[in-house]
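Homework help thread (please don't just give me the answer)

Our assignment gives two proteins as sequence + structure token strings and asks us to describe the second one. The first is just a warm-up. Here they are:
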Amino acid sequence: MYPVSPGHPNYSASGTNKFIPEIWSGKLLVKFYDATVFAAIANTDYEGEIKNYGDKVIIRTTPTITIRPYVIGQNLQTERPESPATDLLIDKGNYYQFVCDDVIAHQTDLNLMNNWSQDASEQQALYVDSDILTNIWGQAHALNKGLTAGKRSGDINLGVSGTPLQVTKENIIDVIVDMSLVLSEQSVPKSDRYLVVPEWFGAMLKKSDLKDASMTGDGKSILRNGRIGMIDFFEIYLSNNLAAASDGGHTCFKCYFGQKSALTFASQFVKTETLRGRAPSATWFAVSRSTATRS
């Protein structure tokens, strides 16, 4: 508002007369959310087979058949194929519940229930994404992590607590190629491979030799189109939900690489309802959700 001279009436909303109203925008400020990646790196092959919180899906696996050399006239050795099943346990749940007074919902010019429910849905996705990226770390195969990764080579350094792998713009491409080699030595299919890294990793890639379009095979440099895309069979995903820790004076991140069939995700909304609270003018909105992950 304009300043008011002494002795002149104040007509603004903050003054006594209030002839000039305050205007509240009918649009809510856009809220930005961290990008989630779990839907891109996990399969949902068994999601339709769960029904309620606490259920368990038994997943049968294909046994490995032994191949033996053959000599004419020999007695053939017979095997009975066995392969242990693995369980997909629906053992995690979360919920949200908020209150909106009826009188507020009636008088406001915004659809608060719809807006808050949309935000709750986004927060659910971020919660699940962070939970997955935090808890699947310890389930990686011993030959796919650490200072001596590689089923055949056994000399690929992927870092470990106390001796983290330092990534620079000079060695970042080599690091990605090494990750791909680790999967290839495990005979992992080259399709649907993924790499989840923090945002600074993506920025460093753009500073590396990949900024030269001729090296990527694209028509434009990644500095021009802003897209990292695929590098050595990996689809690169950037995430702010990776767990970080201080190690040796450096901020370190637990990054993931793998193939989509290795991680299964299942989720169901069990119940969604509007509840009438004890207060005569209050309405609560609640939802519960059960989730499971297997890697």
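The one we have to describe:
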Amino acid sequence: MVSFFQVDAFTDRAFAGNPAAVCLLDQPAEASWMQAVAAEMNLSETAYVTPGQPRGLRWFTPTTEVDLCGHATLASAHVLWTEGVVPQGRTVAFGTRSGVLTAAGAGGWIELDLPAQGVTGGEVPDEVVAALGTTPVRTAATLTFDLVEVDGEDAVRAAVPDLAALSHYRRAYILTARAGDGVVCRVFAPGLGIDEDPATGSAQCVLGPWWGPRLGRNEFMVRQLSPRGGVLRIRVGTDRVRVGGQAVTTVKGTLLSEPSAG
């Protein structure tokens, strides 16, 4: 049987932040089985951790496998530490489709070391901006995200995206604005099976390089303005972004469906 956990990530209290499922496997499993479990969990991400150095880590939305997921990586490290699989606070290395990612303890928080994702060029299409339901100050395209900066926190909160229109694109969309000394954002990815993501670690790979120069510093806080909310601490390096957050386990159990070896 497979040990299963549900963890609320990027929050210090239960039933907030971004819930992720974490499955601890003895060996790699078939992708079709992992996708079926993720659909059954119906969370934005389900993570699968396998033994090794580095440990294997894959992420699935209810409809597809993704190349990078921050909150489920943070949740996986939290489970490994709290369940005694890895000594508390010892840095964990994960082998993923985005290379080797690490998670380390940092003053009661978990800090992820993720690859920075800068602007690759090109404007966000007008039809996408219209579907996001807001007026942009500036826009940018990256490898996996379209970013739309708007004029203030109220504009981020008030946006009502046309999710049906956005579902035609297999991309994710960031709405963001400066808010005092920090940043606010919301993230939508209906084409990837996630209407609005509660708290998005991978989006900080874009927001870090985007906002660092504009804020004039490399460390700042990001608040995600989803209904559940999320708080993330960002440290921007040359080609990496360190994303800090907290996590709370809300569910422990076992999956009665046995995986076939992958």
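TA reply:
I won't write it for you, but here's a hint about the kind of observation we're looking for: The first strand starts at residue 2 and ends at 9.
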